[in-house]
Amino acid sequence: AVIDPALVEAGEKVFRKCAACHEIGEGARNKSGPQLNGVVGRVMGSVEDFKYSKGFVAAHDQGRTWDEVSITEYLAKPRDFMKGTKMAFAGLKKEADMAAILAYLQAASE
Ligand code: HEM
Domains plus CATH for the chain? Predict the structure, then answer.
């Protein structure tokens, strides 16, 4: 599917809320959060050398994957989606921000 470039650009700005903890793009490394390259379609909890919370270790073992629905739910209310998650992030409240970040993460997943 074609991703709206304007939305991707908006998402790059929204990613500033994530960048304290996450890197994405060429050469991205883990920080306090895992690198996010290819996260759309990726198995949950699958970045090498990153120590995930128990819930994501279990999700990984169950083969659960990140898609637009699960990412939206997690980013809206991280602790509701995954009990005990280590991601100390209040959540994305604005619908426009959510659409933009999804486009941005998707673009980095192709
Ligand atoms: C995990 C996205 C903000 C820290 C994750 C995962 C995603 C994600 C998709 C799951 C990755 C995987 O399964 O490999 C985002 C986005 C953010 C954001 C898009 C901004 C909108 C933050 C912030 C922090 C943070 C601000 C730090 C204060 C973490 C940590 C994990 C994580 C520690 C691992 C969670 C666990 O093991 O329970 N994030 N994140 N994230 N993120 Fe974020």
Answer: 5-107 (1.10.760.10)
